[in-house]
Amino acid sequence: MAGDELLASIFKYASIAVAAALGLYATLLWCLTMPTFQSHVVYLHAFQMTWFKDLNVPETFGFLRNQVTPFSIETPDRVQLYAWHILPIELYRKHERSLNAEPTGFVSDITSRLAFQLLRDDPEARLIIHLHGAGGTVGSGYRVPNYRALSAGQPEKIHVLTFDYRGFGRSAGTPCESGLIRDALSVVDWAIKVAGIPPSRILIFGQSMGTAVSIAVSQHFALQSPPVVFAGTVLVAPFIDVATLVSTYRVAGTIPILSPLARFPRLFQYLQRYIKDTWRTKDRIAEYVRTNERNGEKYRLTIIHAEDDYDIPWHHTEMVFWYAVNATTPVGISYDALEQKKLDSKLNLGAAGSVMEWTTDHGVIREEILKTGLHDVVMGYPIVTMAVMRSLEAADPSFTH
């Protein structure tokens, strides 16, 4: 009898726990239909991850005195974006004494600083516009090692310009899809018009959520008349679109958000109607490639992903790569046909992963899959340096000589 009572008690409390879990999950789903809550979940902009450091003191993040210049860029809708201009280390070494003589901290007029002049006045300078992922600030996590990897291939010529989107870090405003794209366009406009760097010497780099912003920017400029094409676009850990991402996404790789509902297509499709910012990278990357092919413009697109990425599964890159390749010809190519071509053409690098290049008369689309690298650690890897140098050299073969 005692055993039966124990089992009944266990069943009772288990039922209560399951009901509570289902109730919490239902509450989460309801909250996700609310734009403000959804925005915080998608962008994670409230999680700065640099609370105990001052972004206006970049030296606390491991930089040399005045290697980084903090300043702001204003958007057309009057949002002040917080930005860092990062000098490459060898260029810094050559001007160390003069740079050390200048005051440190946030600069209201960056054009008055030596670092800016070294960028503007050097016809050989290259600029990487860095678009970071969700959450954090320009100084968070693996972003600092990423900046070093970006300029490591030519440490005298490659400058990095990174910034926080509206609502992130010290930047004003509230994040949304159109707003983040406007932010990135404003930064590129600043680079071209204020710093005087032509698009042929600018590379667009994005990671995670930044990949969606990056391809939106590249597409926007490709559609201009006359078309504007950069030295290259590098995407690390992209995703197809938000709807597909949430159907697979697990917090910390373990806690699902909407993936359990993917088994119920009608319910899942119903909830998709509430997705405010869709970030349809698959469509934008196809239009970007299609536009350049139609215009006869030279372009270079590199997509990198690690197989052990538990934030954004690496199969997203396989699909993004296919959408890009499919847009290179009027008749297109099926996903299965491309996979077959990969079996015949991709370069197997063993423990380092694999590489597949799709080349047309006008462009190169490169897919690099690493065996390891997780979601963020990969940003400091040599593969990033190589992708940058490969793009810059393709745009100007004399750059590395």
Automatic annotation (TrEMBL):
It comes from Aspergillus coremiiformis. The lineage of its organism: Eukaryota, Fungi, Dikarya, Ascomycota, Pezizomycotina. Keywords: Hydrolase, Membrane, Transmembrane, Transmembrane helix. Gene3D superfamilies: alpha/beta hydrolase. GO terms for molecular function: hydrolase activity. It comes from the Eukaryota. This is Abhydrolase domain-containing protein. The chain crosses the membrane at residues 6-32. Coiled coil: none annotated.
